[in-house]
Amino acid sequence: MNNLINTAKINTMNNLQIRIANQEDAQFIALLGRMTFTETFGHLFRDINDLMEYYDRTFSVSKIRSGMQKPNNVFFIAFVDDLPVGYAKLKLNCPSEFIDSPDVSQLQKIYVLKDFLSMKVGVHLQNQLLERAAQTNEEIWLSVLHTNERAKRFYQKNGFNKIGEHGYSIGKEDFHFFVLSKKL
C-alpha cells in the first residue's frame, strides 16, 4: 500500500513529501516533537526537569506508537529530501466544550523544524490534515498558546477563529491558550 499523500516541489533543490505516518515513523515523530517543542517553547521553562518530564510523557517513542494504534488518531509526517522535518496529529471525533456539536475533530499538533518553516511545510501538513478531517467531521478545533503570535497568525490566515480560552500546566509552569475553530 502506498500511503504517500502529496508530493510538492518546494524549490529546485528540495522535495517535500507528506504521508500518513506508520509505526516505523514513531522514533522520527518523537524526536521531531522534542526538537520543535524546545525550539518554540523551551525558553518558557524555568526548570529543565519539568521539560524533560513532559517529553517523557508526551514525546516518548512508546507514547507515539501507542497513539498511532488508536483509531481516532491520524499522524502525518513530512520529509524534505528524505529528511524528517515535521509532523501533524489529527484526532477525529474529538468534541470540545466550546463547540455545540459532537461532529468535530481536533488538530492536536503541527510541528515543523524551525529551519524548514519558510518552505511552507506547515501549510502543506495542515492542508492534508484538514482534507482528512473533512472526510469525517464538519468542524475542527485547536489550542494555541496565547503568546505564540506566529502560530496565531498562521491559523487566522487559514480561516480559524477564536472561540474560547483555557489554561494548562506543565510542571511549575502555567500556560494560557486560545481555542480556535474552523468549519470544514
CATH superfamily: Gcn5-related N-acetyltransferase (GNAT)
Beta-strand portion reads: 35-45%
What are the secondary-structure elements, in order, as H or E?
Answer: EEHHHEEEHEHEE
The second-level CATH architecture is 3-Layer(aba) Sandwich
Q: What's the structural domain tally?
A: 1
N- to C-terminal distance: 28 Å
Explain this structure.
An eight-stranded mixed sheet has the order 1-2-3-4-5-6-8-7, sandwiched between helices. The model is unreliable at 6-13 (pLDDT under 50). Helix 1 (26-41) crosses helix 3. It is an alpha+beta fold. The protein has one domain (4-141): Gcn5-related N-acetyltransferase (GNAT) (Aminopeptidase). It has helices at 26-41, 48-58, 61-69, 121-134, 149-157; strands spanning 4-9, 15-20, 73-80, 83-91, 104-112, 139-145, 161-170, 173-183.
Could you name the key traits of this structure?
184 residues; alpha+beta; Aminopeptidase; 8-stranded mixed beta sheet; 5 helices; 36% strand; globular
Describe this structure in a few short sentences.
The chain is of the alpha+beta class and 184 residues long. It has helices spanning 26-41, 48-58, 61-69, 121-134, 149-157; strands at 4-9, 15-20, 73-80, 83-91, 104-112, 139-145, 161-170, 173-183.
